[in-house]
RNA sequence: GGCCUGUUGGUGAAAUGGUUAACACAUUGCCCUCUCAAGGCAACAUUCACGGGUUCGAAACCCGUACAGGUCACCA
């Protein structure tokens, strides 16, 4: 038994299994060589971030496009930052956006797949086996430096204007003999396990990134921490172990990880593990108050949390479409050329992924969302809005519940036209725009006061109401009905069009638009509404008369 | 500060050495129109961060400069 093995046994006396044993437990996946295995690996520190959703979407797409596997892994190795329950929350939100993992973590009681556990805190044993192996091979060692000592080292480095970190001559614990290390461990001195880097910072190596292209990076020479004093791994080590044994083929993550790529490469090479491919995605940016670019921030930007879009009632496909336009520059053209086709049909390619971060553009999402809602039929729109309302809007749910078909009629206004109306940006806007179709809400609007223009005299308004009641025939077809309205209006002095009004200022003071405005405001309580003919038809003659007579009577 | 990455209009971007720098969002104007929402048409980068070079020819290639972002933890 050599010294390193003794050290390893001293630190992990209860670990009997070897690296080979673990390898056997997680054999290569039985999939074709072109199939990609991707993962989404959030740390449960809060709600799902819009940028993370984008990353997850891409990972899912890459797996799906290649008939591979997409799995979800929870990276909960930092117990200090952990927010209770957010692992399940993130998972649920992901699924709401139709990003359903093929395997991985679903909840505390449900995991799918043979490569688990998929929650890092439950994989402690595996990490320890690997670390023990590394110690016994002289690839890793215990470090007894305290936070204070580390801090002192950093200060010296800063003073000398050298790189900060635990490396080279500063990595004092790497020179401890196994014997010395054993006695310190036995003496109960706290320690972490560090990687013994063989890299040279002055030397470079070539590496290909799917997004960034060919890179030339400095070798790593940091003796980074593998296992923290609490026995849990750092991100770097967990990445090595998990992505190796779960047989990830391509790691898709944010570009904040690019700087530590040399560490990961050295780790994979040292263990003799097959390197994975990498795709480092740019982060979504935003212009802050001072005019500077910065990352979308969960604290400052409501749109950084996906719940923002869920609550506002944007269709999930709209957000996904938008994120895809950022992720693949050719997606927008494809989307325009294939209206209504699911984005699942689109082939994602890293060749069209920008390498710098886009500014988040809410206007664009609104536009995409409007299009999306306009394309839905009245029935579909009602179905989706109703589903949304169950979770996010009592008021909307309540009016739909009163009479589902009545609501469908409202949502169907002019849907059969060549260019359907784009009335709503999201489900959250519907209620307010639709209230007037309901008598109790109309009553509310009426009581607040109808917004009739002040240059309309009471006499004029009464005249219009009387004329409309007498001559308007709701049984007519739309065009005919409107023609009749024009004629009637003309009888009481309203020009039938702009030209006539302009050309005959002595005859006309008002035109048909004004006539209709009076009716519109009285019936709907607003100056703008969808096509009046359809509104009136849905509300029905008795209630129209009621509203008109009420106004006339109170003038 | 070191290292890495990037820079085409207000925004997302196309164009990978060859005529007027696509397209989409936003904005503005006009048309259509019962209002609104749409829709149609048009305007919006004399120029691709800046300086130099290579070339018959550069937004594209090379070199500098500037600016921006990322990163330098027992956080991920």
Write a brief caption for the model.
This protein is an alpha/beta fold and about 550 residues long. The chain has helices spanning about 5-10, 20-25, 50-65, 85-95, 125-135, 145-160, 180-185, 235-245, 260-270, 305-310, 315-325, 330-335, 360-375, 380-390, 395-400, 405-410, 430-435, 440-450, 460-470, 480-490, 500-505, 510-525, 530-540, 540-555, and strands at about 35-40, 70, 105, 110, 140-145, 190-195, 205-210, 215-220, 225, 250-255, 275-280, 285, 295, 495, 510. Helix content is about 45%, strand content about 10%.
Topology (SSEs and partners):
Layout: H1 3-11, H2 19-25, E1 37-40, H3 50-65, E2 69-72, H4 86-96, E3 103-107, E4 110-112, H5 124-136, E5 140-143, H6 147-159, H7 178-186, E6 192-195, E7 204-209, E8 213-218, E9 225-227, H8 235-245, E10 250-254, H9 261-271, E11 277-281, E12 285-287, E13 293-295, H10 306-312, H11 316-327, H12 331-337, H13 362-375, H14 378-392, H15 394-402, H16 404-411, H17 430-434, H18 439-448, H19 458-471, H20 478-491, E14 494-495, H21 498-503, E15 510-511, H22 512-524, H23 532-539, H24 541-553
Parallel strand pairs: 1-2, 2-3, 10-11, 14-15
Antiparallel strand pairs: 3-4, 5-6, 6-9, 7-8, 12-13
This protein binds one RNA strand of 76 nucleotides through helix 6, strand 8, strand 13, helix 12 and helix 13.
